[in-house]
Design brief:
By secondary structure, the protein is mostly helical. The protein has four helices and no strands. It has one domain.
Length: 130
């Protein structure tokens, strides 16, 4: 059952990330589906396996997403040269892959993502008990 739950979280996160990219930049890349899937799966685990205060979860969520973006960016942008994104024009960027402004955005978006994760987990838990 946990495999299906996490698979659903991965798929939902992937499509949500692609949607955010399309709204924000008007374009996306298939690697963003994988990145978003991984990010939401990790947020899902954070939301359902811990009882930390919401602000702490959001801060950890922002750090998780930023770390995943950095790792993926180093692979797809720097390693493979796909140039999916480039933050080198943003202040305080790290190797053009991450910047503080987006970490703040991830903090803000972690709030509804964590709430959604908790709701999904609750619904699945109730459905399994029925």
């Amino acid at each position: 059952m946990i495999f299906l739950e996490l698979s659903f979280a991965f798929s939902l996160g992937g499509w949500a990330y692609v949607g955010i990219e399309l709204l924000w930049r008007r374009r996306t890349h298939w690697s963003m589906f994988l990145t978003g899937g991984l990010c939401f799966t990790l947020l899902y685990a954070l939301a359902t396996l811990t009882s930390l205060p919401m602000l702490v979860q959001c801060a950890l969520g922002a750090l998780i997403i930023t770390a995943v973006e950095f790792i993926v960016g180093c692979v797809v942008n720097l390693g493979l040269g796909w140039n999916v994104w480039d933050y080198s024009h943003n202040r305080f960027n790290l190797m053009g892959q991450i910047c503080p402004a987006f970490t703040v955005l991830w903090f803000t978006l972690s709030w509804p993502a964590i709430l959604l994760a908790k709701i999904i987990h609750l619904v699945i838990s109730l459905a399994v008990k029925s």
